[in-house]
Amino acid sequence: MTTLHERQNSIEQLFLRLVATRSDTNSLYERVVEEIILTWLKSREYFKQNPSLVGTRDIFNDKNERELVWALVKGKGNKTIVLVHHHDAVDIEDYGKIKNLAFRPDELREAMLTRKFSDSVKKDLASGEWIFGRGTADMKAGAAIQLNLIDEFSQKEDFEGNLLLLSVPDEETLSKGMLSAVELMEELHQEHGLEYILTINSEPYFNNVKNKAIMYEGSVGKIMPIVYVKGVRSHIGDPYNGINPSLILANIQSLTELNVDLCDKVGDDATPPPIWVNLKDRKKAYDASIPDAATGYFNWLTFTKSPFTILALLKKLCQKALEDSLQKFEQSYLNFCRLTDDEPDVISFEPRVIDYDTLWNEAVESGGDKFEAAFEKFLKKVNDLLDENVITLPEAGIRLIEFVADYIDLDGPTIVVAISGPYYPHITNSIIEGGERFDLHQRVNRISKELFNIEYKSKAYFMGISDLSYAAWAGNDKDVLAIKENSPGWDTIYKIPFKALQTLKMPVVNIGPWGKDLHKPSERVYARDVYVRIPAILEKLITEVFECERSMKFLNVWY
After folding, report:
1. How many domains does the chain have?
2. Are 137 and 54 within 8 A, CB to CB?
3. Which of 149-158, 188-197, 228-237, 531-540 shows the lowest mean pLDDT across its residues?
4. Average of pLDDT values for 400-418?
5. Residues 374, 251 share a domain
6. Amino acid 2: pLDDT
7. Measured between alpha carbons, how far is residue 323 from residues 207, 228, 248, 255, 328 in Å?
8. In this structure, are 201 and 277 located in the same domain?
9. Are the C-beta atoms of residues 500 and 183 closer than 8 Å to each other?
């Protein structure tokens, strides 16, 4: 049996080793930390004796050839708890002149003591209770805790249940690691007869109160709509002979940006309103003409709104923006005619708002096989640019929309609504079938109070966006169809393994250490949580969940 001192020593050594290993997301650095984790797992006695229960899985369409690392500890029965964490971290450029110390907590702390930081950071630096460094909180601490737990459970005799560990890359960008893990889980389910009953993530929680902790029974969703606006081109000296797509796009932004009516609210929590992250015209060079088209995309976080609902709502907002733009255009034209004493002409625009699926079908109807062959050729070029990091995923989607629109000589003013990856489904236990059967909040709170006299508060959604979104599925076929049909380049530049994801119906929970200032130079994690509290709570929780499942099995047999 592992003593508390042995556990702390084991976690500390592994944690500091992981922190010292650079693992910038979407880079070759991730392959280094993957090799370290795999080597460490293979050095454990259990996996020396069971080498087929540890390994790696290639990531879909990945130029960096990254892999997820997995390990399965098999006990009695088929009930299985999944432990998931990510091993990538954001880069270190924000550390400036001390970025060479970002992976060395002790030296970093000394350097930070001589620099200007907020009073809160200074207090934590002086206390000695916090570990500073890139990836300490997000989420090398959670990784070290879970790796140590899988080792401890592998040493237990008469172990009831199975534990599957998933260490994934790319969480900070597109979650390619977790998407590949979903397919792996389905394969392991088939091969070993596993029944997944709970997924535990160990992202840090955010709090300002020392003796109150937070757990999350779900994760916020995110959808990224693309809006493509085709205008009517004209010379700037003749503005009423065309229509500026940038005006229409600006009105769409005005109706959506910071619009709290578009927020989701559950209990005391609410999603932030939509925020646009990109708006621009599509002119390739300067000339004295109105832009032919303009595009943009934005983040829309969700608790309850489905992709199908969001697309329908966005099309209505776009319709209003288009009507408002044309009304302004017409009023301006009439006022200008009065100013110049001219007789106004009849405006003959035929405005439309359509989704990408409609645009695609119009192109297929127009060009048939010839169009599809041309599109596939262009899609390959776009995918190559994406692989080479020349363009982003949303930009790839926009270029594909442009290609289809140009192929059919799309008339303006027209708004095309589409979706870009990454798409994160919202998930919480209250909407999962059987998601509340373990009374996770009550159970974790009792364990924490018994062991450490610390209270836990439960929140329905982790607001940091996480891989937990892919640990269970609570959507429907209409949502899947809405995503697939309106995502340009689906299955090539981006995909979600919906078939495998739809088989996952288990509860989820995020229980991790106390962290602060993620993605900032003052990123830090509470040491006692890493070495003592969270490992003890998770060990007890895992044991109790398996005992609960065994009790239910006996009860069902008795009845």
Report:
1. 2
2. no
3. 228-237
4. 97
5. yes
6. 75
7. 45, 16, 9, 12, 9
8. no
9. yes
